[in-house]
Amino acid sequence: MIRILHTADWQVGKPFGQFEADRRGELRAERFAVVARIAALAQARGCDAVLVAGDAFDDNTVSDRDLHRTMEAMAGFSGPWIMLPGNHDAALSESVWTRLRRRSGQASVVIADRPEPIDLKDGAAVILPAPLTRRHEGADLTAWFDHAETSGAVRIGLAHGSVANRLPAKAESGNPIADDRTERARLDYLALGDWHGFVEIALRTVYAGTPEPDHYPANEPGHVAIVEIDGPGAAPRIERVRTARFDWRAMELRLDGAIDGLDAALAELTRPGETLLDLTLTGSLPLRERVRLDAALGEWSARLFDLRLRDAGLIDEPDAEDLDLIDVGGFVRVAIDRLRERAADPQDPERAAAQLALRMAYVEHRRLLGPAADGSGAAKG
Question: β-pairing, 154-160 with 189-193?
């Protein structure tokens, strides 16, 4: 029996430039931590090899320090790491792979940068790699698998690109792979990279996805595959194993009239301190609820690892109670009423500014009134 761990798309060195420095540093460090978890998993499960199906590195200019830290993280697995150049780390004349060859490391690394068979477990299995030598290829580099001789060994393809007609959306690199390659090349398993979610797109054909998410997806990232194959022609047993620490989650909530559903929805996040939330809010709220919302979001922002808010579809809709609480008359009340009209008009180019001004007026007026604004303290007389 052959047992492999299939992974891809580590993208070590990814800059995460959209985050503040402290969060950016922690996300970058987690790329090394997940490689160490993969190594420990492969060792604990007695894998014959770890197959990395491209984009181990975010680009070929990854720093020497990042390269060294990656090799240190890989040292927890004593077997071979078979690493395929992908579109981010293509096998150029000078690349991360040529630099890696010049280094001595603790991990046993086989750089699969040539389209030629790689024996595994004394020839019991053969890895057929399709390395990328530039970022974008127009040809299907897996075509040579069809005629590769393997002398009765388990046949495992290793490639990085887009399988035609099988993915739910366009994969990143666009490098084409025939949708019937597994059948035509008589593969017992085709280990793929480039699509960042775990998906078994056909029998024996799997994208492992990135082991640690790096954006807000809907395609199940954060896993590796443990694959067992009893022999040539045997159906592989494929186990999806979670490896991710961070939970990148997109959520949409509609709030109409009150924010009561917000805390209930966010309370379902089991590890808020390790959750990056992209939150879209729609609906309409009176000003007093919008003030409550701002306070609640401030609390959740402190609890979550990161909170990104999209609230363009959430409308301030002052009601009579709001405006009665802004206890003013004369020209100030006329101005408030005018702001209310503009804030309610979706065609008004200054609508957002009017909404903000109205909200600020409400908050400031309630602040000046102090406890009496909430019906507490001394009665007005």
Answer: parallel
Residue 346's pLDDT is 80
Q: What is the pLDDT of residues 168-219, one digit of tens each?
A: 666 555 799 999 999 999 999 999 999 999 999 888 999 999 999 999 887 8
CB 322 within 8 A of CB 287: yes
Q: Yes or no: say if 23 and 306 are a contact pair by the CB < 8 Å rule.
A: yes
Q: Which regions in the chain score pLDDT beneath 50?
A: 329-330, 372-373, 375-381
According to the model, what pLDDT value does residue 165 have? Answer: 78
The rounded distance, in Å, linking the Cα atoms of 210 and 296 is 33
Q: Name which of 200, 195, 208 is nearest 235 in CA terms.
A: 200
Q: Which two tokens stand for residue 370?
A: 């102090």
SS (H, E, C) the chain: CEEEEEECCCCECCCCCCCCHHHHHHHHHHHHHHHHHHHHHHHHCCCCEEEECCCCECCCCCCHHHHHHHHHHHCCCCCEEEECCCCCCCCCCCCHHHHHHCCCCCCEEEECCCCCCEEECCCCEEEEECCCCCCCCCCCCCHHHHHCCCCCCEEEEEEECEECCCCCCCCCCCCEECCCHHHHCCCCEEEEECCCCCEEEECCEEECCCCCCCCCCCCCCCEEEEEEECCCCCCCEEEEEECCCCEEEEEEEEEECCCHHHHHHHCCCCCHHHEEEEEEEEEEECHHHHHHHHHHHHHHHHHCCEEEEEEEEEEECCCHHHHHHCCCCHHHHHHHHHHHHHHHCCCCCCHHHHHHHHHHHHHHHHHHHHHHHHCCCCCCC
pLDDT value for 29: 97
Note the pLDDT of residue 324: 64
Residue 147: φ, ψ to 5°: -110, 5
Please tell me the predicted confidence (pLDDT) of residue 213: 95
pLDDT of residue 242: 97
Q: Would you state the structure tokens that stand for residue 268, as one six-digit string?
A: 């379902």
CA dihedral (365, 366, 367, 373) positive or negative: positive
The whole-number pLDDT of residue 369 equals 52
Quote the pLDDT of residue 355.
76
Token pair for 305: 């690892």
Enumerate residues 6+ apart whose C-beta is below 8 A from 298: none
Cβ-contact 117, 82 below 8 angstroms: no
